[in-house]
Amino acid sequence: MSKALERALTSLSTTLSTASVDIPALPADYRLRVLVDLPRHSRLDAVLDYLAPEPWPAGTLVRVPLGKREVSGIVWGLAEAPDAGADTTDTPAPTLRAVTQALTALPPFSAGWLRLVGFAASYYQRSPGEVGLSALPPDLRDLDAVQLARRLKRLDKARVAAAKAAATAAQVHPPERPTLSPEQQTVLDTLAAVATVAEGPPQPSLLFGATGSGKTEVYLREAERVLAAGRQALILVPEINLTPQLEARFAERFPDRCIVSLHSGLTPAQRLQHWLSAHLGHADLVLGTRMAVFASMPRLGLIVIDEEHDPSYKQQEGARYSARDLAVWRGRNEQVPVLLGSATPSLESWYNAGPVDAGGGRYRRLVMPSRIGGGHLPAVRLVDLSRIAAQFGKQALRQHPLAPPLLAALRERLDRGEQSLVLLNRRGYAPVLHCTNCGWKSACPHCSAWRVFHKLDRTLRCHHCGITERVPRACPDCGDPDIQPMGRGTERLEEQLADLLPGARIGRIDADSTRTKGSLETQLAQVHAGEVDVLVGTQMVAKGHDFRRMTLVAAVQADAALFSSDFRAPERLFSLLMQAGGRAGRDAELAGRSEVWIQTWHPEHALYAALRRHDYEAFAAAQLAERESAGMPPFSFQALLRADARTPEAALAFLEAAALQAQRLPGAQEVLVYPPVPAPIHRVADVERAQMLIEASGRVALHRLLAQWLPDLKTLSSESATRVLRWSLDIDPLSI
Ligand code: ADP
Ligand code: ZN
Ligand code: ZN
């Protein structure tokens, strides 16, 4: 722990126990337990006791003094009231400070919401104060009672006006509902039956539906059912840029309903307004990214998790929660049906929806294998790069990003006025610059990574620490002017395609081309309007977007994931290619000639073989068998302890000491602690990163150990011999 933090905490604990001057002259008859957001790794408990003149119920938002500040808190419950007759001689009660304000204009959070916070905190080994308060919109945490009252009044006015407008809109344009496909009908019948089971929490359902099978229509009908019953629905999507599209579809279907979104792209004021609408029960539908899993919804009746396999559902900092997993827990906790949807479910969910005798059965599996309109899934073609190399020479491959047959296929699309998508998961012009004379390469001085060459502004940029420099005129080591790009990124591919396909309109969508607000929308609109013939993009275009006139998707460099050290890499590759293929041939009429092209050195690989047959089930079965024999998730449970330090030795020393602590804990023999290793990119911005994997065959054993370990880890990180800059525990880590 830093000196400054140490001092802050010491002064905090002294003020907490000695400051009595601040207590207002209110009759403080009750003792409340209040959640506050304390600094991380603080040795104080994040549930603090305060005096209060009234027994405000659990879930009430309050303002409390904390050290020298006043902060927001959430009443967690009633502590024992001070007992006048008690003998206080041997343990003098600490002098407590009083709650400054209770924001009673806001209805308290429900017991279900508080349980969700409590569960998330204990599962992800964080404090309930941190989880609870970070779940609130930042603006809410800054309001006092007067400001809040003003906001609520404004919100109410806006609501009345919106409701009137919506009612007329619904009369003018009654929504059109398509006739359900037989598969959709069967799925909805099953879901309706699940919903009427009288007792206990409904079983979550996994909707395994091909791309274009009409999963969204199922979500819409399910939402319709719960809205008609007077409940609210929560719809989660993985990416911000998928929310406008989905919001439009829901708004069209439910013109007279209040729909709000929750994601990080909103202004603080919008986020507060949307959040309040959900909390007050005004909003019937809440659409959002992972943060929306914590939306407070008093009438919650349904949770949908679209593209449930998407890694974006996992928060990558702070409390590293999985919104998908929390949503499933929330559904059970509030006895609400949960619907997970995907064309390529995560292997965890697939396993949970598998046969009971194989360990599954926690989810119900619902299937929709056919595309709406009877469209075929695109044919998958593998380009064997070793054959191409034999035929045209390796040099030709290096110079041309696309093998001749693929190029011919692109030209065919151009001639027919159809669109193509070429995927390359690497932005910039070239991943490395090098000197042809001495072998110098554009390493980042602060990271264990190369700086990427961006040709547009002639910079070398590190994608890890962000350092940006102009490209040197000559080699920094030997002065030779001949420095050359090595390899290929999206910028270079765009340039090469423009050369190879004269006259074609080439577009590019990646994190660089969409940096400014609204630019992604503009570029997508251009693609939809047919102003782009060939779109070059990273995986950000492979998800969810519905490109009608696209009949070819090509992945030019997919192989790396086949041999990655991350055991989830093949799963991600398969799903990326299936999803990308799902972009092609959305128009049933064009589906017949839609193709997915994959350039590979390993055409015989089982992953590609399954992909050719669109056989997710075979792929999943093979992967699950592999994971079972290797004892990997979902057949085991993992946590990753990460440490950041100035030197690799310090980071590793902390983890080694931590491993020794773990060995001495009860239950240690049920848990496997791997040796600490440097992180895959071990240095970022001059900070050395190391990690240690912890694994158990049972969740309970793992969590029992972690809970006992955490206090020891806090002590360890504050001791001088094992001091580190940062450490964190990642439960169910997605990338190892
Ligand atoms: P998915 O999410 O499963 O990939 P979508 O929900 O986007 O598929 O549906 C694909 C297309 O089919 C959409 O354009 C949708 O409007 C249309 N669609 C869905 N259900 C029906 C139906 N029952 N009848 C006609 N069109 C439908
Ligand atoms: Zn050189
Ligand atoms: Zn760097």
Structure characteristics:
736 residues; alpha/beta; seven-stranded parallel sheet; six-stranded parallel sheet; 20% strand; globular; binds adenosine-5'-diphosphate; binds zinc ion
Uncertain regions: pLDDT < 50 for 5+ in a row? Answer: 1-25, 85-92
Taken as a percent bin, the fraction of beta residues is 15-25%
Sheet with most strands: 7 strands, parallel
DSSP helix count?
21
Unique bound compounds: adenosine-5'-diphosphate, zinc ion
Structure description:
It is a single chain. This protein has 21 helices and 28 strands. The chain is of the alpha/beta class. Helix 2 crosses helix 9 and helix 20 crosses helix 21. It starts with a helix and ends in a 5-residue tail after the last strand. Bound molecules: adenosine-5'-diphosphate and zinc ion (2 copies). One zinc ion binds next to loops.
In short:
With 736 residues, the chain is of the alpha/beta class. The longest helix has 28 residues, at 145-172.
